[in-house]
Structure formats: structure tokens, C-alpha cells
Specification:
By secondary structure, this protein is of the alpha/beta class. The chain has 16 helices and 17 strands. α3 runs antiparallel to α9.
Length: 415
């Protein structure tokens, strides 16, 4: 039994976990990464900082295009129909419905001889195994389950059940790629980016690693064709695997936030930041950076405590000059970051400690003024459908609201 002195030093939410006998997992290391170096907001030095932190620099030679909302299913269908050799899909959640039907039809209409490999996290894809997977197999697609919990044996391993895939990847012929926030399912506010150029090889390698783990074997050499420069944008794909210490996702976000000089606009569907993230956001706001954060205003399906958990950090952020909005129109699934006028990141990365610890994530980091400008315009448009959380109003909230907002972050389980 821990001493009373030791118990008093435990975070409140951890004490709740111990007393209730639950297996709450929340990591808050005292030595979390905080970057205090004076990083440039673009160029070779920023690329070098990313390379030192996550092993991925920003290489030139890319064409990038923002793909959002109802245009995402259209882009998925187009990749399926345009494929000439192979089509690889890594999806965290694939649910039956209109989007699924459209993609299945496109796969049925793909060119003869196109090899189709699909990896889905079935644990978070209700209805997929029974209603969608058999049709895909009938169409000649090889379909595998990411870390299945029912196979030759039934797995009752809590860590394995929580260590899931959260990446969204579509790679066509090893030459074209798509990545974003959510999988195949109901309509939502989501953001993808389409890329052609050398970074597609990084998307393909990420798919290959997970495909190999799922028992699919090695991809053929043809899946990694030589990629010539296609445009002016600099880009790199940062794949992050759950880590008990410091994930690549956390490293990437810290580097990009540290690089902001004028603007740091962040949209995240699962915003339950660590102390290190909050500290960096506050430091940037105090340095005069325009720090704005857009988060969900509609509770995640099946997670009624999601909004309460994200609001735990509001008070410190608002008191120190960070501006916050909650999106009201539809469920928000975008995960994007805009730094100044040239750098942006689009992907699946949650800003939440358990996600860093347990989930497979990925984001495309791009240095391209047109893309950053378009993403910034999209962010401003989103704010017209959002409610700003103002400091004075937040101070005046009622007693029950204050109690509700103190739920421990470990209770959300958001993905």
C-alpha cells in the first residue's frame, strides 16, 4: 500500500483509478519534450529539426492538394478507378453506409489486374466484417484485420485491444497518396491531403510495415517505383507508433509549434493535451503568436465524457492568451496544423496522451504557401460554424459545469 504522503502526491484522476479498481492509463512524464530553440518557420533548418526529431525531413518535388468533406469519397473513388497496378488502403474505421457503397462500387470497377490490398481495424469498424469484407473479397481484394482480437485464440489483452490503428492511407501504384483524419463512414467535417512525389514512398512504407505485421507478407518491388519530382512543395510523411515514452507524433507537433512566429492555428478532433503541449501553446501566445484552437462542440459518438475531458485545459489556455472555439455544425474529425504562411500538417494525429501511447498515427507535413493559405482560409470558414469560448464567460460558468469539466482525461478513450 502506498503511504498517505505518496497518495497525496498522486494526480487526482490516478487516485480515482486506484480506488475504483480500474485500469486507467494516463501518462504525464515530468521530462516531457519542450522545445525552446529558436526554430525558423520554414526552409532547410526546419526540415533538419524535423529530421533530427522524427527521422523525416521535408524533401522537394511534390504536388499537394487539399481534399475536404464530401470531396473525400470522390477522391477515394478516383484513386480506385485510376489505379493501373496496385491499390493499398489502410483504414482505422470502415462502416457500412453510403460512403462504403460508393467505394465498393469503385473497387468493383477498377482496371483488370489491379492488385487490391486492404487493411482495416475491425475492432473499430462495426458491421465491416459481416457486411463489407465478404464483398471486397469477392471483388478480388486481399483484406486483413489489424491486430485482431479473435482468431485462432481469443485475446483478452487490454493493451493489445487499446493499441489500435488510427491512420488513414490510400496509395495508388506507389505514386499517389491520400491521408487524413477519419476513415470510411458517416459524413463529418474532415480534411485529407492528396500528394504526388517522393513522400508517397513513405506512405507506402508505412502501409507495408502494418501489412507485414498483419500477415500479408512483403510487397513486391513494383510497389516502390522510382519517384521523380512533380512540383514545388516540400513534404514528408511522419508515421508514429504508440510509445510508452515519447512518440514521433509528440515530437513532430512540438517542432512545428516551436517554429511558429506569427500564426499557429490548430484543429483537432481529440484535444486533451499534455502539460508540455499546453505549456508550448501558452509560450507561443505570450510571444505574440496568434494561437487559435478549434475542437469538437458535439460529443463523440459513444463517448459522452469527451467534451468534458477536452475542457480540462481550457482555463490555463484562456488565461494566457490562447483563443478557443468549439465546432457546432457536425462531428469534427479534422486534425490539421497551420504554421505561419508556409507550413501545414494534415493527418490523423490526436493531441491526447493515450493516443500517443497506444495508437498508430500519421501526418503529412508540407511546406507550401498555397496549401497553407487554403488551409488557413478553411480554418476561418470553420470558425463561422463554431462558438468561441471566451475567458470572461468561462470564469462565470456554474458549479455543476465546473465539476463536469474536471473529469480525468483517461476516461475518454477518444480515437
Amino acid at each position: 500500500m502506498p503511504s498517505l504522503h505518496g497518495v497525496n502526491r498522486l494526480p487526482r484522476f490516478l487516485l480515482v483509478c486506484l480506488l475504483s479498481g480500474t485500469a486507467c492509463i494516463y501518462r504525464e512524464h515530468p521530462q516531457q519534450l519542450r522545445i525552446h530553440d529558436d526554430l525558423p518557420d520554414s526552409g532547410p533548418e526546419l526540415s533538419l529539426a524535423l529530421y533530427q526529431s522524427v527521422g523525416v525531413g521535408l524533401r522537394p518535388g511534390h504536388v499537394v492538394e487539399l481534399v475536404q468533406d464530401e470531396h473525400i469519397p470522390e477522391a477515394l473513388e478516383a484513386e480506385a478507378r485510376q489505379a493501373r497496378e496496385s491499390l493499398h488502403l489502410l483504414v482505422s474505421s470502415w462502416q457500412p453506409g453510403e460512403a462504403s457503397e460508393r467505394l465498393v462500387r469503385a473497387l468493383a470497377e477498377r482496371r483488370p489486374g489491379v492488385v487490391c490490398r486492404i487493411l482495416v481495424d475491425a475492432l473499430h469498424s462495426p458491421g465491416f466484417v459481416d457486411t463489407v469484407q465478404p464483398r471486397l473479397v469477392q471483388l478480388g481484394c486481399e483484406v486483413r484485420d489489424f491486430r485482431p482480437f479473435v482468431g485462432e485464440t481469443v485475446v483478452f489483452n487490454d493493451e493489445r485491444l487499446q493499441a489500435r490503428n488510427h491512420r488513414q492511407l490510400v496509395i495508388r501504384d506507389g505514386r499517389s497518396g491520400l491521408t487524413g483524419g477519419a476513415g470510411v463512414g458517416p459524413s463529418c467535417r474532415d480534411t485529407y491531403v492528396h500528394v504526388e512525389g517522393p513522400a508517397v514512398r513513405q506512405l507506402q512504407q508505412t502501409f507495408a510495415r502494418d501489412w507485414l505485421e498483419a500477415g500479408g507478407g512483403f510487397l513486391p518491388e513494383s510497389a516502390f517505383p522510382p519517384l521523380e519530382p512533380r512540383g514545388e512543395a516540400r513534404a514528408g510523411f511522419v508515421a508514429s507508433t504508440g510509445s510508452p515514452s515519447l512518440s514521433y507524433s509528440e515530437r513532430m507537433v512540438q517542432v512545428l509549434m516551436a517554429a511558429a512566429r506569427r500564426r499557429l492555428w490548430l484543429t483537432n478532433a481529440c484535444f486533451i493535451p499534455t502539460t508540455a503541449t499546453v505549456d508550448t501553446l501558452i509560450r507561443k501566445a505570450q510571444e505574440g503568436v496568434d494561437v487559435r484552437i478549434l475542437v469538437p462542440g458535439i460529443p463523440p459518438e459513444g463517448l459522452p465524457g469527451g467534451l468534458a475531458a477536452q475542457r480540462v485545459s481550457y482555463e490555463r489556455l484562456l488565461e494566457n492568451g490562447v483563443r478557443l472555439w468549439e465546432y457546432q455544425a457536425v462531428p469534427l474529425h479534422s486534425r490539421t496544423l497551420v504554421v505561419d504562411d508556409r507550413v501545414a500538417a494534415v493527418g490523423s494525429n490526436n493531441l491526447e496522451a493515450n493516443s500517443h501511447t497506444l495508437l498508430e498515427e500519421g501526418s503529412l507535413v508540407v511546406e507550401d504557401a498555397p496549401l497553407a493559405s487554403e488551409l488557413a482560409s478553411s480554418f476561418e470558414q470553420d470558425l463561422t460554424h463554431a462558438k468561441e469560448i471566451r475567458r470572461d464567460d468561462w470564469r462565470k460558468r456554474g458549479l455543476f459545469q465546473r465539476f463536469d469539466y474536471q473529469l480525468p482525461p483517461s476516461t475518454t478513450g477518444c480515437r
